[in-house]
Structure formats: C-alpha cells, structure tokens
User: What shape does this take?
Amino acid sequence: MKHLTETQLIDHLFEPQADSSTKQHLDHCANCREQFEVLQDGLSIARQSEPEPVAWKQPRSRPSLWKRVPLAAAAVLLVASLLGFRADYREGQFSVQFSLFPRSNVQSVSDQELQTQLAELEKRVAAALDYHTARTANELNEQFAALQESQYRDLVKLSIQVKESLDNTELQTGKRIAMLNRNLEVLKRHTGADAQDGALQ
Amino acid sequence: MLSDMECVEKVIRGETECFDLLVERYRSKVQSLVYNHVRQSETAQDLTQDIFFKVFRKLDKFKGESKFSSWLYRIAVNECIDYIRSHKKKAEESLELAFEKGFEVLDTSEYSDVQGRHERKVERQLVQKALATLTPEMRSVIVLKVYEERTFEEISEILSIPTSTVKSRLYKALENLGRSYRRRTLLREVTP
Assistant: This one.
C-alpha cells in the first residue's frame, strides 16, 4: 500500500473535509495514522504556545526616521543661512562663503541701507535664537522621555525578578508537597500492612 | 483612497509623507507578525521601526512583481529570522518569560493547589523545550499558518518559496514539535 505524502498529511491536518480518500487511508493504515497523530500533537503544542496578545503603546509623536533625514538637512541649511553662510555653485566648483552683509552692498552703504541691514541682521539673529530655543526644548523633552522610559524598564525588570523569585519558591514548595504526599502514601501502605499483620496474629 | 502602489510611486517621487499612509496601514499587522516571532513586545516595537526604515530605503527596488504587503511581510520575516538567529540565547530567555506570562492564571482559589500549579509549570517547560528545537525558518511558517491563519498560497508569496516547500517546512516543524514533546513526556513519566 502506498503511504500518504507529507503534502497530503498537512492538507488533511488543516482541511480535513477537503479530501475523503485521505481519511479512508488513515482509517486503514496504522503507519500513516501514527504519523498524522504526531503532526496533531505538534499542532496542539504550537497552538498552546501562541503568545498572549499585547496592548501596544502608542508610538511617540516624534518625526519618523524617514522624515528626520531631510528635516535634519533642512535644519542645518536654515541655521547656516541664518548665520550668514552662503553656498555657491559655479563652473563645477562648490563653495561656501560667510558674510554678515550681502557682498554687493558692502562697498557703498548709506545710513538708510545700513539701518535696513541692521534690522535684517537683528531679524536673522532673533530667528536663530528662536530656532535654538525650540531645538533645546525638543532635546530636553526627548531626554525626559528617555529617562521615563528607562525608569519604566527598571520597574519592569524589578517586577520580573520578584515574580521569578516567587515562582521559584512556589516550585520548591510544590516539589516538597509532592514528596511529602509520596512519603505519606508509603507510610499509609506500611501502616496498613502492619495493622493487617497485627490482625492476623 | 490611494492604493499601496500609488503610495509607493509618490514616495519614490519625493512625497515622503505618503509613506506615513503605508505605515499607518500596516504598522499593527507587522508589529503583530514580529511579536509572534520574537515574543517580546519592546523588541517587537523596535524591530518594527527598523523594518519600516529598511522598507523606506529599499522602496525604489520594489517593482510591483508581488503585492506590496507580501514584499513588506517578506522583509519583516527575514528581519525576524536574522534577529532570532543573532539573539538565540536572548530569544530563548524571552520565550521563557513570554510563557511565564502567557500561562499565568490569576485565580486566587488556585493558591492552595500548589501541586497542581507545579504540574502545569512542568507542562509549560515541556512545551517550551519542544519549541526551542525549531529553526527560525520553521518558526516563521508556524507563525504565518497557525497564528496568522494565512493560506499556503499567501505564505508562499510572502516567503518567496513554492507552496510545496511551505508545506514540507510546516510538516517538519510540526513533526519536530510533536516528537520532541512526546519524547520529553515519556522521559518525564519514566523518571522518578
């Protein structure tokens, strides 16, 4: 008799109604039936070991990694331009210059222009300060969140350790009780035998 | 609503905010898939972040030959397999912890039944030892078929292997579990 293949056994395990000939074969072939029962045991073990569902924490509302890369680049460019750096690309050459005032205006500046440039500079410094303040606040928030997270982890570790210690104690107690029960059984048997001997005498 | 493929095309063209749509759409599914592999919620969350970052970087390589979801799950499963392989010892410890949590019965009436609890604990350890005999690849097919209840065709597309190989891998995984469990139960029965 030809035995069932791995595929047929697996198909029957997950869809028992799909093919009645497999069932008929299993009813008559002890070898395949034994193999099928091993698979059933395996499936039952797998199902028993399914992890408990967890309540997921909401991800933190910081920008995702794929957003942070362009954001970081944009931030660097913004700060650089606010501080007076200028990037230039001419004839295949890339260069960065630094100037507080636009070059073309440096040579002939009237009082009016100077006032405008100073006002412009003040604006740029104020914007840079605002940006720096916001960034520091963000960094502090992130550090605070990281600290909270690490404390939470410590707490989880501690509760796991306490639980493990309790479980161990319980396991030891369980073993001792089992042993005492066995001793009690033996004692009972002996006592019963002695009583019977006494009755006979 | 934008389809997965439309989102992918937009992200490749530079509209990175469309990637958030994909993340929102698949985050919980990927997270659960990863958790079923690594059995540790914090690790699962970290790995899920890594997986989406990897997907974002590889997105231009996705040519639409399979469904986007299958491609994403394939990356996730491979990432889990790599993780389990490189953290084998740690993963086993986590597995033990997950079992401890998973089988916890918070019923105070059972506190007097210390021997019964001891029996259940031994039973859990047998199951756990049987699971430890599986390779990461075997564990993946069990996760996909038994926990996620996917069809053999879906698993075949996700793992990018023929359906017959999926069935054969599942057969070996379940046979391993069944035989290992039987062997250990027998040993336990004959050992005083």
The two ends of chain B are 65 Å apart (CA to CA).
